[in-house]
Amino acid sequence: MNAKTPARSSKRWTADLIPDQTGKTFLVTGANSGLGYATTRDLARRGAHVVMAVRNEAKGRRALEEIRAGADRPVSLEVRLVDLADLDSVRKFTEGLHADEVGIDVLVNNAGIMMPPRSLSPQGHEIQFAANHLGHFALTGLLLEVIAAGRDARVVTVSSSLHRRGRIHYDDLTGERDYAPTSFYAQSKFANVLFGLELDRRLKAAGMPVRSLLAHPGYSDTNLQSTGPTGLMKSVMRLSNRLFAQHADMGALPQLYAATDPQARSGEFIGPDGWAESKGHPTVVQPVKPATDPADARRLWELSEELTGVRYGLPPAP
Predict the structure, then answer these.
(1) Does 5-305 carry CATH code 3.90.110.10?
(2) Which among 15, 158, 22 has a CA at the least distance from the CA of 7?
(3) Which residues carry out catalysis?
(4) What is the pLDDT of residue 152?
(5) Which neighbouring-strand residues pair with 283?
(6) pTM summary value
(7) Over the stretch 131-185, which tens digit does the pLDDT of each residue have?
């Protein structure tokens, strides 16, 4: 197991330690359920305005009303539609934000798809790579100038401990020759880490006042395990969730720490402090070594710009 450093603000960091966020705007993808719901709720309770980026409007509005009903003071929320697996939808979504002059201080790239049968996005990309990586790569790039103008600007990209089993299948990105749900999920989460660390390098090299952080929730009980997998895998995950997973409220703590704590540093990876990083309170963890390779990160970055058509204008770090 890699060495860990306790989150500096507290050895047992909880949502109660989130600083006041009044006057700040957060954009959270996948905000209607699981980690995204918990993140949105806790940010709103601390005074933030949260743009809830969701794929299903009815579920998004239902989540918004639940958060409002459970709050002990008025909260500021809005629902906007985006399908991260569809690059046309991502562009339409960001165009709407620009047209409405919505300022974004912090972007939380949280939404994800987990281990479905093989399918392709509208642009022909493997669906997990499309939603989990390419959609967030495009979203971040299209909003980066807006974020850079924000207060305590940050981009938090949510990965998984399964990134440790990942690699980029450059010779078979769509899984046409050899698709396995778990390995392609691991690929997308490995891509998240390559992207978050490379974004940190490029932002620092360009002198942009934006922090890029990574987070992962450990093993948390969310609807990812029930909406993606099928057959035996779905049954196994449903049972495993009941027996071993921590609540989504705990799983959201690493990304909340990364998004709000003053001491969270750009380039850090925040995960749970428990056994095998499966559950616990936020701490600084280490990604698997191949995910820190700048050459692979640059290769993926250039490929992602080509596949999405979104160019950041950030030169590679020396």
Answers:
(1) no
(2) 15
(3) 185
(4) 98
(5) 6, 271
(6) 0.92
(7) 999 999 999 999 999 999 999 999 999 999 999 999 999 999 999 999 999 999 9
